[in-house]
Structure formats: C-alpha cells, structure tokens
C-alpha cells in the first residue's frame, strides 16, 4: 500500500511541476529582453516542451499504477521515468541552479525527489 502512495506522490509532484512550467511561459520569454522573434519562439517551445514532458511522465506513471502497478511493463515505465527525471535533474543542476530565480534552483531537487519516490514505490 505504501508503494502506491509513493508512486502517486512522485507522479503528482511531477505533474504539478510540469503545470507550473506552463503558466509563466510568457513572462519567462519576456524576461530575456530584446531578442529575435525566432529566439522567442524557441524559448517558448522549449519551455512548453519541458512542462508537457513532465506532465506526460507523471500521467504515465499514474496510469500504469492504476492499471497494474506490479506488471513488468509498469516496472519498466517506473525505471525509465526515474531515469528521465534523473537526467533532467542533472541538467537542471548544471544550468538552472546557477540562475538567481528560486524556481530554477528547485528543479533538480523536485526532479530528484520525484525519481526517488517512483523508484522506491515501483521498483523496490
């Protein structure tokens, strides 16, 4: 039972952080100041892609947990989701952690916590 709670917590944290990426997109792009229209589109696209990717990972973990959290396929999804979140955590540690804006400093922590919750809940 505790495994399910950990899985749902890891998934929910991932989804919520993904949603939190989508709302400030416009202000984040404005924060770059006077840049080309192409660069504005690239930043917008990348910001949205990270948010949607996080939401997808969280929803995928939730759905396989609802269907059958003990199946081999579910375990593979948990492992790959944790690996993906860990990669994002490393990238965020070396990039976003250097930025003074607090939410960027939180990314690697949130990604790591989500990955650990999913691993403990689903693989152990």
Features:
124 residues; mainly alpha; 0% strand
Q: Could you please describe the fold and organization of this structure?
A:
By secondary structure, the protein is mainly α. The protein has one domain. It is 84% helix and 0% strand. The protein is built from five helices and no strands. The chain has helices at 2-22, 25-30, 37-68, 72-94, 102-123. Helix 1 packs antiparallel against helix 3 (37-68) and helix 3 runs antiparallel to helix 4. The longest helix has 32 residues, at 37-68. It is elongated. The two termini are 13 Å apart. The mean pLDDT is 92.
**Which of globular, elongated, flat, extended, rod-shaped describes the shape?**
elongated
**Count of helical stretches:** 5
The total tally of domains equals 1
User: In this structure, how is the largest beta sheet organized?
Assistant: none
Q: Provide the residue-averaged pLDDT.
A: 92
- Please write the string of helix (H) and strand (E) elements: HHHHH
Helix content: over 70%
Question: Total number of β-strand segments?
Answer: 0
Rg over CA atoms, rounded to whole Å, is 16 Å
Ends distance: 13 Å
Low-confidence stretches: none
What share of the residues does DSSP label as strand, in percent? Answer: under 5%
| Structural class based on helices, strands and sheet pairing | mainly alpha
Short note summarizing the structure:
The chain has 124 residues and is an all-alpha fold.
